[in-house]
Amino acid sequence: MAEADPRLRALAHPVRLRMLSLMWGAPMSAAELSRELGISHALASHHLRCLDEAGLAELAGVRVRRGGRERRYRAAGGTPLTERGTASRCSPRRWRGAAASGPGAARG
Q1: Does residue 1 lie within any of the structural domains?
Q2: Rounded CA gap, 79 and 68, in Å?
Q3: From edge to edge, which strands make up the β-sheet containing 57-65?
Q4: What's the pTM?
Q5: Half-sphere exposure of 63 (CA within 13 A, CB side)
Q6: pLDDT at 46 over 70
Q7: Which residues lie below 8 Å from residue 37, measured CB to CB, with a gap of 6+?
Q8: How many CB atoms lie under 10 A from the CB of residue 72?
Q9: Domain containing 53 — which CATH number?
Q10: How many domains are contained in the chain?
Q11: Residue (of 70, 85, 91, 76) closest to 6 by Cα position
Q12: Fewest beta carbons within 10 Å, which of 30, 55, 65, 72?
């Protein structure tokens, strides 16, 4: 069996979809994403690395902050999910609700 496309694997986690949605508005660091999502900095870094390796996030810049470097990432251009609103249409919550409502409920 062929291995899944890395982009699909990266998008398989709802936290990563939410991260992409946040990074469409403005570049963000792992620390900013962790605060916004209510997850640990280590977990935010892990998910951000997965998105970066899959080509769905890209480095937007580095700035020196408090004696360290802060890397800020944005949603990568030219990916299938750069269209605004795509992450909300792919939301697991939406699909769970649609499954409860019956066929065709998640369209449009």
Answers
A1: no
A2: 30
A3: 28-29, 68-75, 57-65
A4: 0.68
A5: 8
A6: yes
A7: 15, 18, 19, 22, 44
A8: 17
A9: 1.10.10.10
A10: 1
A11: 76
A12: 65
Tokens 């890395």 sit on residue:
6
Map tokens 């900095």 to a residue. 41
Structure tokens at 27: 């570049």
Residue 106 lies in a domain: no
Whether 48 is in a domain gets the answer yes
Domain span including residue 23: 6-101
Instruction: Please identify which residue in the block is written with the tokens 């449009």.
Output: 108
Contact of 82 with 24, CB cutoff 8 Å: yes
Distance (Å, rounded) from C-alpha 34 to C-alpha 19?
9
pLDDT digits (tens, 9 = 90+) for 4-43: 788 888 899 999 999 999 999 899 999 999 999 999 999 9
Residue 25 placed within a domain? yes
